[in-house]
Amino acid sequence: MFERPDAGERAILVHLNLQAGQEDLYELKELTKSAGAQPVHVVTGSRYRPDPKFFVGTGKVEEIRVAIGTYAADLIIVNHPLTPSQQRNLEKALEVRVVDRNGLILDIFAQRAQTFEGKLQVELAQLKHLSTRLIRGWTHLERQKGGIGLRGPGETQLETDRRLLAVRIKQIQQRLGKVEKQRHQGRSKRKKAEIPAVSLVGYTNAGKSTLFNTLTGADIYAADQLFATLDPTLRQLSLQNGSEIILADTVGFIRHLPHELIAAFRSTLQEASEADLLLHVIDAAAEDRDDTIFQVNQVLNDIEAGAIPQLKIFNKIDLLDDFSPHIDYDETGKPVSVWISAQTGVGCDLLQQALCELFTGSKVIRKCILPARQTGLKAKLFGLARVIDEQFDEFGDCQLTIEIDNKNLGLLREIQVVDDFN
């Protein structure tokens, strides 16, 4: 049986039009480039259902074999999930490495992960994916390796690898459990401080990281490629009215996101599932805009975040003809979408305005006099309210104009309120 090569860069893409479901061929090309491979040829076809042995028919297998020789390809990328047996049969017949759609996405994630947590999550997803593909995938896995005190007489390399995989998966899950506890503690502290959490979500390459950088002044990596950034980033953001929110940039979604990734990244995706508001970033210039919106909402439902309020951000309006930034409101006067360009910054002030309107509905403005002796109460006010104006009279008393949440109005019972602006 053929021994699998370790790498390949010249790729032939295989894409079938199936009655049961359809993947995007353009998206496959972009995924391939993001992984660092070079698409040299595309083999397409149509079937009512996949062939159980090769996924494609025997005629297509021969067509792919000819294309391998013609284009000197060393890698086959199939734009669909393959069963372990289909992947093994194709590799045996074609004698080159075969990667399915899920394996390709996992490879991109492995390249993008930078943090300790991100690398652990990707490794866990890869090991779970690999564990289903150990059976007779490589010839050396069938060889008997006796060894008293090593692995036990008669244990095959396949059994050893399977056991080592299980041990490693358990170790990673334990480490990720500790990281998840730390994340939970951080979220608990933010909730106690009553700072709203806002998560950027959206289809990959919609411009989330660019928008995150524009709003927060951060310098996280952003590029015109799928899954340019992977690890979540959190920053505190001051709104135009002086209130604070925590803004989180999360991993981009994609149609049919592998279940291994959803499971492995559940702790990271909790930044979205436990947010107070989701900023759903949408590529306004994309031809399949409505479909990507549907796909993102599908993933949000998978991670139990479908019921969280959304503010749609239609990004990249600079790529549209004759389109200006604006805010769309519903019948109650609540912002539901904002049209902007994160790249040029056009409309980002309107996004700030929309966020202020969404998070300051329960605030009121009060003018009060605070005696000089009440320094402790003054410190509390400065911590819980936004000070609009501060002046001192000849007696040293402080005259304050503040914006404060309704729930904190109890602090004003000990203070002389001289004006009510509402």
Mean pLDDT: 78
Query: Can you write the helix and strand succession as a string?
Result: EHEHEHEHHHEHEEHHEHEEEHEHEEE
> What is the helix fraction of residues, given as a range?
25-40%
Strand content: 15-25%
Class inferred from helices and paired strands? alpha/beta
N- to C-terminal distance: 80 Å
* Structure annotation, total helices: 12
Major pleated sheet: 7 strands, mixed
Number of separate strands: 15
Low-confidence stretches are 1-6, 136-154
Shape: elongated
The neighbouring-strand order within the major sheet is 6-7-5-8-9-11-10
Could you tell me the radius of gyration in angstroms?
28 Å
What does this structure look like?
By secondary structure, the protein is α/β, with parallel strands linked by helices. The chain has twelve helices and 15 strands. The chain has helices at about 25-35, 60-70, 85-95, 100-110, 115-130, 155-190, 210-215, 260-265, 265-275, 290-300, 350-360, 375-385; strands at about 10-20, 40-45, 75-80, 95-100, 195-200, 235-240, 245-250, 275-285, 310-315, 325-330, 335-340, 365-370, 385-390, 400-405, 415-420. The strands form three sheets. A seven-stranded mixed β-sheet has the order 6-7-5-8-9-11-10, sandwiched between helices. A four-stranded parallel β-sheet has the order 2-1-3-4, with helices on both faces. Strand 1, helix 1 and strand 2 form a beta-alpha-beta unit. Helix 1 (about 25-35) packs parallel to helix 4, helix 4 runs antiparallel to helix 5 and helix 5 (about 115-130) runs antiparallel to helix 6. The chain is elongated, with a radius of gyration of 28 Å.
